[in-house]
Amino acid sequence: MATIKQVAQAAGVSFTTVSHVLNNTRPVSDEARRAVLAAAEQLHYVPSALARSLRSRSTGTIGLIIPNNTNPYFSEVARGIEDSCYAAGYSVILCNSDDDPVKQRDYLNVLLTKRCDGLILSALADSDGELLRKMKVPAVLLDRAPSDLSIDAVAVDNRAGGVLAARHLLGLGRRRLACIAGPREVSISNDRIAGVRSAMADAGVALADALCRHSDFTSAGGYAAALDLLALPPDQRPDALFCCNDLMAFGALRAAAERGIAVPGELAVVGFDDIDLASFVHPALSSVAQNTRELGRITAACLLARIADPALPRQQRSIAPELHVRGSSAAVTLSSSAPTSSPATELMGMTS
């Protein structure tokens, strides 16, 4: 890669003349300007981003840490973030933490070392929050935001989403609701289950502890948890299942198919996130929608506003979810002995 000194030698001018031409910092004769630009083109000179960042105190980069970009929810949100940041002239550096606090801290340190103009983080430990405040880096917490950290945050109203799912299932006449939740320590999952419990309590129905399972946010995890629930005796087996994300719901649909349990005839299933694939399983998955692209756009806009004005008051954005009802929880006559829908089949290539 050519250097600015090599451009100066080829153009027959001084190093400072090349700098003034390329950065437009001082008038230069037309002849010298033409010589510099011709030499730069001939040598394929690319200005140093590091040098420019030192002068402007801006790198034009945004750091994004998410748990796993193979989860379609996070990949769709990341795309919304990237589109918005690119339109504003920023590049996005994507890091996967795998929900590992140590790995996330390592990536956070890397992004701080690279002097990113701002950071978007899907989860944050209290100690990392202290580090961000100390470094004075604009940051936004996405999806999982501890309320005691004075950092901008954008998230869907997870409790409200759980309420929507439970009210829908109860409205179908289902009473033995079961839940497949995420890891116990993940707040968004706990909030969704709290919403289910609240809606059921309002309807005079309790969520039985025996009908709750915890898993990771994967199809394999949902599959294993659903097999366990569906192995209960018929009079104890759930007639409705709420999964805390769509991937776990996909696994549950496969489990139901393997056990010959008709969906939605014998078991209504609702997921959370409403990723694009939710419409392409059979039966199509009912899901609490977060509008992932819009969530990414709002998160990026929040960070860009913070970068432009660090003195802004703290921004807290809570986005209302919507329930999209499809075939997996369609209304059926529960007393009918005949299946109203073919059992779920495997999602394309996404088997456990």
From TrEMBL:
Residues 2-56 form the HTH lacI-type domain. Coiled coil: none annotated. Pfam families: LacI, Peripla_BP_3. Gene3D superfamilies: 3.40.50.2300, lambda repressor-like DNA-binding domains (1.10.260.40). The keyword Ligase does not apply. It comes from the Bacteria. This is LacI family transcriptional regulator.
